[in-house]
Amino acid sequence: MRYFAVVLFALVAIIWTVQAVNFLDLVTDDGHAFKIYLLYSLLTIPKIFTKLIPFSFLIASILTILKLEKDNELIILWTAGLNKIHIVNLIFRISLIIMFLQHVMASIINPETLNFSRTILKNSELQFVTTLLKEKQFNDAVKGLTIFVDKKNNDGTYENILIRDEGKVLTQVSTGTSTIFAKFAYLTKDEKNLILLDGSIQKLEPGGSVNIVDFEKTSIPLSGLSTKTISEPKIQETSTIQIIQCMLNKNKYTHNCSQQTKNLRDTKAEINRRFGMPIFIPLVALISCFLLTSRRDKKNVGFDKYKYFFIGFVIIVSSEITVRYTGISWNHTAAYYLIPIVLLPLVYLSLIKKFKYENLN
Length: 361
Known about the structure:
Elements: H1 2-22, H2 25-28, H3 34-42, H4 45-70, H5 73-79, H6 84-123, E1 138-139, E2 145-152, E3 158-165, E4 178-187, E5 193-204, E6 210-221, H7 240-247, H8 261-275, H9 280-288, H10 301-322, H11 330-355
Antiparallel strand pairs: 1-2, 2-3, 3-4, 4-5, 5-6
Helix pairs in contact: 1-4, 3-6, 4-6, 4-9, 4-10, 6-8, 6-9, 7-8, 9-10, 9-11
C-alpha cells in the first residue's frame, strides 16, 4: 500500500502539472479568472486518479515482491513453512480493496467533481477583457461576438477595430446583427467599458435594411460577458444514476440521453468503463504474483520482472481500448466482463499448481 500510494501520487502530480499547463488556455484565450482556472484544474485530479489506479497498483505489486526477494524475506517465510499461495491471497485481497476504490472513484466521485467543474465554467464571467483584443486576430471567445484589432499601441490604445455582434451581446437594443467599425479605441481603467472613437455602427434590421449610425465617441460595456466554453456536461461528467436511467429509457429527456445509436453506444461504453474496468485490477495483481515463482538461481530471473510487468501493462491498456467498443452490442459488453471473470480463476489455479510442490510444511 505504501508503494501504491507513492507511485500513484507521483504519477498524478506529473500528469496534473502537464494538464494544468494546457488548461492555461482558459485564461489566455477564453478570459476566465485565474481562480476559476486553478479550481477547474484541481477538480480534474479525481479523473487522473481513476485512470492511474490500475497502473500504479501493478507497479506497486511488482516492487513489493522484488523488495521482499531482495531482502531475503521471502526465503525466511518459505523456510518457516509458509506456502507462497498465502502471499498470493494477501495481494489478491488487497487488490479487491483497490478495485472497490476505483469503482467508487469512477462511478461516484469522478462524475460529480467533473460536473461541478463544468458548472464553474458555465457560471463564470469574462475577467480578462484584454484577451478579446488581440492584435491581428479574429477573436470569438464570446458566443455571438467577434472582435478584430488591427494594431495595439504601446500606450494601450487600439487602431482599426472591427466588432461583429450577432445580436444582443454588446448592443442590447439591437434585434439583429450589428457591425461596428472604429479607427481608435481604448479600455477604461476598470476594464469594464471599451471606448470607441471615430467610427460607425451598421445594424441589420429585421426587414433586411441596414441602418448606419456614425459616431465620434461611444462606449460599449464589456462586463458580464461569458465565454463560449462548453458549458453542457459531457457523458463522463454525467452521474451514474442518470446514465442507468437513460439506458432503461426512464430519463430520456435529460441531457446526454439521446436515443440515437451513436449516443446510446457512448452511454453503454461509459457505464462499462465505470463498472467493468475495476474488475481487471485483481487480474493484474495475480499476474504480478508469478514473480513469486522466480528463483535467483534461474538464468532468466532478471527478465521475469519485465515480462510480467509487460503482460500486466498490456492487460490494462487492452481493457482501456476495448471498453470503447462495448457499446456496439450487448455481446461485446458481455465479452468485456467475461474476460477478467474467466481469467481470474484460471490464473489463480495456475499459481496453485506452480506452488503445489514448493510447500515446505
